[in-house]
Design a protein that fits this description.
CATH superfamily of the largest domain in chain A: Alanine racemase
Number of strands of chain A: 17
Radius of gyration of chain A: 22 Å
Number of helices of chain A: 10
Shape of chain A: elongated
Strand content of chain A: 25-35%
Oligomer: homodimer
CATH topology of the largest domain in chain A: TIM Barrel
Largest sheet of chain A: 9 strands, mixed
Distance between the termini of chain A: 31 Å
Largest interface: A-B, 59 and 59 residues
Number of domains of chain A: 2
CATH architecture of the largest domain in chain A: Alpha-Beta Barrel
């Protein structure tokens, strides 16, 4: 692959990341969090690259968020020393890995059941207790205790374990459900106070409704991931514009079988099948009227009916994906550029870390 | 990770491949192809593992099919010496890589435009012409020339290039469109004969309707991939039963937030978002009434409403994915077992080879 000049000369498909936009996105969100009085703890799932996490920390983030131990290991080994792991860690091998990680960095995990807490409790020791938050389901309908009462009971159970330290509440909210989050956190805070338990952290997150985070009166930490690159779903959510999207997938038109059809050399192995509510598979930057109607693993089929000018075979065109995080997980590396000028190739170091 | 004993002891999520079923699936399809008088040229996209391709060749396959050059490089380097690359290869760097590959093995590629042919023609030489097939669109609406007339003209154009050799027709058919394929191939064969061109290979493929391939009177090579593992989509197509599915994704129940909800530690990073016409994200082997209603990147949300017995936190359960090929592309390695007994860990050597 070409290592200098325009990124348009790269062999396709290639994931291009505009560092100017990355830096702008980080600065914008950090400034917002600072003004809102919220600690930023970016979720690294979007980029999976230690160098970019360090940019976020340098801008003012208090630490990072990972979802899986094997991801956290990559970032800890790269020198990042404050990690929140927002996952119920279960199973002997994972608990052993967690222990090693805990000896290396400041580690916080979540739990939503006594089962998870019991596993943690027997793994750690009172000499160096593990920091544990209670995960709360405030409407996301994924993991999490269901009521403030349950949250309080689990917090008490954690606090009773000499090897663990209860430090806060964490939720994975749906976009635009801030009121639910506030109510759940407020009620639990009241119950915790009655129970004599201190609650240091109230952690919420999500990029889509990030810019309404200032309205909180109780949350004090915010986890967001996608904002560093942005994507088509965040443009739709009103979070940003297409010009704020740092990730483009560079593709080549490999076939023009009919007047209205183009086929690109990037399929679900590059763009993923994630629709996120869209009916097509990405925004075609260079031909905004083009519609990516279908993907197979290595091909995108594009309907050009609405295009006045149509791309030719061999032409390179850029796509903004529906969902940027899942694209990062498909790529061994990305190409960093500044306004189109190639700068460096980076490994996606935490790609494929599923456990 | 545990390297002996039951695969159920592996840390999750983990992709389990039952080698007994793999061998049975290969033998079944090879026998069918032999009896139908068709040469088998398996598509390696499903497994992406040279060792499994060698099993297919040992059973009687004439060579393999790859979609991308970087995949073909992996298999050529592993000693496989007859590869069909079913992709329009465009761009200088790819053509250079193609040239190196052509010097290493017996290589055949496809083209559906004079643009593609021109690139190939200038890259290769008359001393060692490259074998080229014309890709035909017989209803798949992806790449391919649109009519037998166009196919013949492009075949003539290829035959006129001293550095290329026209060797046949290739199509990517939709399931159950054998009649279209037959008609397109028959008509083109007639036109090619009139033009004095020999056509050595008529190549069709696809696992879903593989067992009707015997009805062809003209196709002589068959490309199929998924049959080696099988998946939920092939069970639905009537190609096989759940017991013929070699790939299971082993997961752990990490949360039971409500009576009817379980959350697994495998999300779209393990199962992919590929629905293939289903409305849920895989078949839960151990709880067939359970429905995987949603995926985020690291979590699957499972509706247990219809289950009389329900899984507990910490329990390991197996999933047959909707689409097996895309799962292989997410995993650095898979765990081979024989009826549940761990045998070996294999790298998915051609994972993530997108160009």
């Amino acid at each position: 692959m070409a290592q200098q000049g325009s990124v348009f000369s790269l062999t396709t498909p290639a994931v291009l990341i505009d560092e100017i936009i990355v830096d702008k996105n980080i600065a914008r969100v950090q400034k917002y969090m600072d003004e809102a009085g919220l600690k930023a703890r970016p979720h690294i799932k979007t980029h999976k690259i230690p160098e970019f996490a360090k940019k976020q920390l340098a801008a003012g983030a208090v630490g990072i968020t990972c979802q899986k131990i094997s991801e956290a290991q990559v970032f800890a080994d790269a020198g990042i020393n404050d990690i929140l792991l927002t996952f119920n860690i279960i199973g002997e091998e994972k608990l052993e890995a967690l222990k090693a990680l805990h000896n290396q960095i400041t580690l916080t995990v979540v739990a939503d059941s006594t089962h998870t807490v019991d596993g943690l409790a027997k793994t750690f020791s009172a000499e160096r207790p593990l920091r544990v938050m209670v995960e709360c389901d405030t409407g996301g309908q994924r993991c999490g205790v269901q009521t403030p009462r349950e949250a309080t009971e689990l917090a008490q159970y954690i606090a009773e374990q000499p090897s663990l330290k209860f430090v806060g509440l964490m939720t994975y909210p749906m976009p635009n459900t801030e009121d639910n989050v506030e109510a759940f956190f407020e009620q639990t805070a009241g119950l915790l106070k009655q129970a004599g338990l201190e609650c240091e952290i109230f952690s919420t997150g999500g990029s889509p409704s990030l810019f309404s985070a200032e309205r909180t009166t109780i949350a004090n930490e915010y986890r967001a991931g996608t904002y560093i690159y942005n994507d088509r779903s965040l443009v739709r959510a009103g979070h940003c514009g297409f010009d704020d999207c740092a990730m483009h997938i560079l593709t080549t038109v490999v076939s023009r079988p009919t007047e209205s059809r183009a086929v690109l050399d990037a399929g679900s192995k590059a763009l993923t099948s994630d629709l996120l509510g869209f009916t097509d598979f990405g925004y075609v930057v260079d031909y905004p009227e083009a519609v990516i109607t279908g993907l197979s693993e290595e091909h995108a089929v594009v309907d050009l009916s609405a295009c006045t000018k149509k791309p030719e075979i061999g032409e390179k065109i850029r796509i903004i994906p529906n969902h940027t995080c899942v694209v990062s997980n498909l790529m061994d590396n990305i190409y960093v550029h500044k306004g189109g000028e190639f700068d460096r190739k980076l490994d996606v170091a935490a790609r494929g870390k599923v456990w």
